[in-house]
Amino acid sequence: MTALMPRDCIRPALQEEAGEIARLFLVSSYGLAAYIWSKMDMPGLSLEEIGAARYARTNTSFSFENCLVAVRGHRIAGMVHAFPMEADASGTEETDPILRPYAELEDPGSLYVSGLAVHDRYRGQEIGGELMDRVYALARARGLPRVSLICFERNETAFEFYRKRGFQEIGRRPVVPHPCLHYRDGDAVLMVRHCSSTDQVRRP
């Protein structure tokens, strides 16, 4: 199936690519995914295997169904994971102190980007920007007025990447340190970009 697809494109992820998505998600989350997956009751599985099982699911927010992958030469070069952020229907608060800051920074009504990552060998080729262009267009196609994401304040490269693409800070919470996290101080920052009429879905 993959061989019939274009060598260089951005397309929806396939279920059998859940393992690659998990590997990229470990990169994009700077330890947060590792923390979450380590708490799941899946004895005997590595973090990548737990993540792959998580993203192989269907009909849930954290699924390959909400991922786009950038392909270069039939190889996955990067991915972005985004889903509509809805209000917490249960009305319960996050009780895990490590995760509470991120739960408090949710932006209901937006298309939430929970992960964007590009493999090292493909960086510097504007792949991240191309993936984000598709995200803006998808938000408009789904009738969502804005795109949201959370960026670590200490991750200056990512912070500047999003600022240059029109994202603005609308909230922040102090990071709660944990050995799994790459950034153990500073703030987690909620950033939002409003979609414009020029954000059209681009086809590969």
TrEMBL record:
InterPro entries reported in the protein's UniProt record: Acyl_CoA_acyltransferase, Bact_Acetyltransf, GNAT_dom
Domain of life: Bacteria
GO molecular function: acyltransferase activity, transferring groups other than amino-acyl groups
Keywords for this protein: Acyltransferase, Transferase
Any one Pfam family match given in the protein's UniProt record, by short name: Acetyltransf_1
Domain N-acetyltransferase: start-end pairs: 8-196
PROSITE patterns: GNAT
Protein name: GNAT family N-acetyltransferase
